[in-house]
Amino acid sequence: EVQLVESGGGMVQPGGSLRLSCAASGFTFSRFPMGWVRQARGKGLEWVSTISPGGGSTNYPDSVKGRFTISRDNAKNTLYLQMNDLKPEDTARYYCARVPDGSRGQGTQVTVSS
After folding, report:
1. How many CA atoms lie within 13 A of 43 on its CB side?
2. Residue 92 phi/psi, 5° resolution?
3. Cα separations (Å) of 94 from 28, 56, 84, 105?
4. Strand, coil or helix: what is 65?
5. Which DSSP category does 26 fall into?
6. Residue 16 and residue 32: Cα distance in Å, rounded?
7. pLDDT tens digits in sequence order for the chain, 114 residues long
8. Alpha carbons 99 and 83: distance in angstroms, whole number
9. What are the two backbone dihedrals, phi and then psi, of residue 30, each rounded to the nearest 5 degrees?
10. Is 55 in contact with 77 (CB distance < 8 Å)?
11. Which helix (H) or strand (E) holds 113?
């Protein structure tokens, strides 16, 4: 059974930083591309980053490029998202997701507000 458990969310002021983590289990983590998706209240899911199985290739939409960095530690079965220069429009629930099938965890809330 695929299990993805996110942590690290919280409330931060604009311009602040947060680091999200995702502990993966129930599958061979190192074989799958992974990513982070987010959903703001009343809106659909938005992919904010993806990373290849070995970590050598990453992708970001323009909305977060240069501010967010995805990484992974395959030895620890853990996915990360470093978020810098956070903006109010980044407020959403963030989910760790397995790219091929979209399996995701329960999410962690990020709120950016002054």
Report:
1. 14
2. 180, 175
3. 22, 23, 15, 9
4. coil
5. S
6. 30
7. 999 999 999 999 999 999 999 999 999 999 999 999 999 999 999 999 999 999 999 999 999 999 999 999 999 999 999 999 999 999 999 999 998 888 999 999 999 999
8. 20
9. -70, -10
10. no
11. none
45 in Cβ contact with 80 (< 8 Å): no
Neighbours of 32 (CB within 10 A): 19
User: How many other β-carbons are positioned within 10 Å of the β-carbon of residue 6?
Assistant: 23
Tell me how many degrees the CA angle 18-65-59 measures, rounded to the nearest 5: 100
Contact 105, 95 (CB under 8 A): yes
The residue whose two tokens read 């329960």 is: 106
Q: What does DSSP assign to residue 55?
A: S
